[in-house]
């Protein structure tokens, strides 16, 4: 029966990490991490572009906040799993 070295398994998982924790957030450290930012940025832009036209500033803030908070929460959760 072969036993696994826990430190070796941890090193392998660190090498496959997509994100690195930094001050309560995560930054991408691999191409896969950077690639996940593309749909995230597109989501932020499209919600802004679809909700902002012909709205006052206060309405814009009130309408965008739930969408952007949801996007940030999902991205943070995904980065935490992949780090």
List the helices and strands and how they pair.
Layout: H1 6-15, E1 19-22, E2 25-28, H2 31-51, H3 57-81
Antiparallel strand pairs: 1-2
Poorly predicted runs are none
Cα radius of gyration in angstroms? 18 Å
How many H/I helices? 3
Roughly how much helix do the residues carry, as a percent range? 55-70%
- Quaternary organisation: single chain
Number of domains: 1
* Ends distance: 30 Å
Q: What topology, given as strand order, has the largest sheet?
A: 1-2
* Largest beta-sheet characterization: 2 strands, antiparallel
Task: List its traits.
single chain, 83 residues, mainly alpha, two-stranded antiparallel ribbon, 3 helices, 67% helix, elongated
Provide a short characterization of the protein structure:
By secondary structure, this protein is mainly α.
Provide structural commentary.
The protein is mainly alpha-helical. It has one domain. The chain contains three helices and two strands, in the order H-E-E-H-H. The chain has helices at residues 6-15, 31-51, 57-81, and strands spanning 19-22, 25-28. A hairpin with a 2-residue loop joins strand 1 (19-22) and strand 2 (25-28). The chain is elongated and about 45 Å long. The protein starts with 5 loop residues before the first helix and ends with a helix.
